[in-house]
Amino acid sequence: MTTTSPQRIRTRFAPSPTGFIHLGNIRSALYPWAFARSQGGDFILRIEDTDVERSTQAAVDVILEGMRWLQLDVDEGPIFQMQRMARYKEVLAQLVANGHVYPCYMSVEELDALRERQTAAREKPRYDGTWRPEDGKQLPPVPQGVQPVLRFRTPKDGVVAWDDKCKGRIEFQNAELDDLVIARPDGTPTYNFCVCVDDMDMRVTHVIRGDDHVNNTPRQIHIFQALGAKVPVFAHLPTVLNEQGEKMSKRNGAKAVTQYRDEGYLPDAMVNYLARLGWSHGDDEIFSRAQFLEWFDLDHLGRSAGQFDEAKLRWVNAQHLKALADERLAALVRPFVLKAGVTEAQLDADDRLPRICGLFKDRCDTLVDLANWARLFYVDTVQPGAEDLAQHVTEAARPLLSAFAAAIEQVEWTREAIAAAIKVVLKEQGAKMPQLAMPVRVLTLGTAHTPSVDAVLELLGREKILARLKSR
Q: What GO CC annotations are associated with the protein (predicted)?
């Protein structure tokens, strides 16, 4: 008895570098990556750069940077289609030799006129097969000096169908499909053909992509069959909509993926959020990357469009940020603190940053938020708002502040000793905690809303507190 080993799962992400990759695009990378990783398979990155006029190196860089940041590691690639032209032309020649492809000399003007006639007659505009060879058919004379396109002989009868892992059974009548152009007059192959050759050569088993490709799929299945290649499993993901309910696109204000990195989002939080934009595991909202890979399958892909919600993304990021160990968080926030104006020397002068992170992480949504708090512990001065100053740093507060400044000049510098000194000042002055704590917060950190005042002061340090209390 012989047994066959199961086929190794191979998936791919194949973006076009014609615009900066946004969250809707990157979700089309996340799912094939997750499926390959969950199945012990391979994940391939292919750059579909055949649109030479619109493709840019800057867009390629954002794709690579975005995937590196999100830690969507690839097993093969990036593979660039423009470097595979010789291979496409070789396969094209095979299809011509096998009779699957034929030259078509219909000019653009003739094709436009044909479509106008069909539209006027309320017919679907489509190529009419003028140059398609058939038994007993007399083809028109070949015009002089015209370079033909190459068209694929689409089967005329029956249906082309597949069981989509996201959308279920999908069928197209072959009679509805005309003969597709698969090479231009200069011999360069077109998108649908290149994709099939790539997927065949790269042994892709599962094509997981956006549902804007559904109409390409029957064409590609025909080409796979003509090539004698195994047709991959398809999963067409619903569109990601922006907050206005429109398809997410750069034109509609979508941000490049790398902008979220620069705004202080965590890669694991982005993976968590994007995963939930079209897939679910029960009611689980917050999960780690390891849990996602353990749970992910193609059976729980959603069928309806996912809508981006920045407030929800911030909330998810906040949950991941809170869960990080203080030391790890300090390492992640450090570049943002430096960007906020703190120097390397200031940060390296002591080991306060992890403790600052631990104190403030519960009230921050992003690393930028956290860095803005941390910065206040290193710079020389802060700028309280006029409203906070007017409300809290009043003439009535001055004696309290003076007494507090005197009390902390000699106190042992621990949180407990600072808390005890505050209690003594309040008792001696006959005041309540907010009457002292609020103006102290405003003068030392520039805002009336901070964590526990004794914890903040202990981390800020005696010299900075005294300097800031005496600055106004």
A: cytosol
Write the pLDDT tens digit of every residue in 342-362. 999 999 999 999 999 999 999
The domain of 329 spans 324-375
Q: Are 330 and 371 in contact (CB under 8 A)?
A: no
Question: Residue 10: enclosing H or E segment and its boundaries?
Answer: strand 10-13
Q: What's the DSSP call for residue 247?
A: B
Region of poorest pLDDT, from 117-126, 226-235, 315-324: 117-126
* Together in a domain, 428 and 371: no
Closest among 271, 294, 279, 460 to 380, alpha carbons compared: 460
Residue with structure tokens 């938020």? Answer: 369
Same structural domain, 364 and 395: no
Number of domains in the chain: 2
> Which amino acid makes up residue 51?
D
Those residues with Cβ within 8 angstroms of residue 412's Cβ, 6 or more apart along the chain or in another chain:
none
- Cα distance between residue 184 and residue 428, in whole Å: 90
Give phi and psi for 399, each to the nearest 5. Answer: -60, -40
Which of 241-255, 282-296, 412-426, 444-458 is the least confident region?
Answer: 241-255
**Token code pair at residue 242:** 């922006």
Is 156 annotated for ligand binding? no
Q: Which amino acid is at 138?
A: Q
Q: For 206-260, write each residue's pLDDT tens digit.
A: 999 999 999 999 999 999 999 999 999 999 999 998 888 888 876 777 898 999 9
Nearest to 76 by CA among 115, 119, 44: 44
Structure tokens that stand for 442 in this block? 């405003």
* Cα angle: 70, vertex 74, 80; to 5 degrees: 110
CA gap 328, 182 in Å, rounded: 52
3-class DSSP state for residue 393?
A: coil
Q: How much helix, strand and coil, in percent to the nearest 5, is found in the chain?
A: 50, 10, 40
* Non-local CB neighbours of 383 within 8 Å, separated by 6+ positions: 446
The one-letter code for the residue type at 28 is S
Q: What is the pTM of this model?
A: 0.91
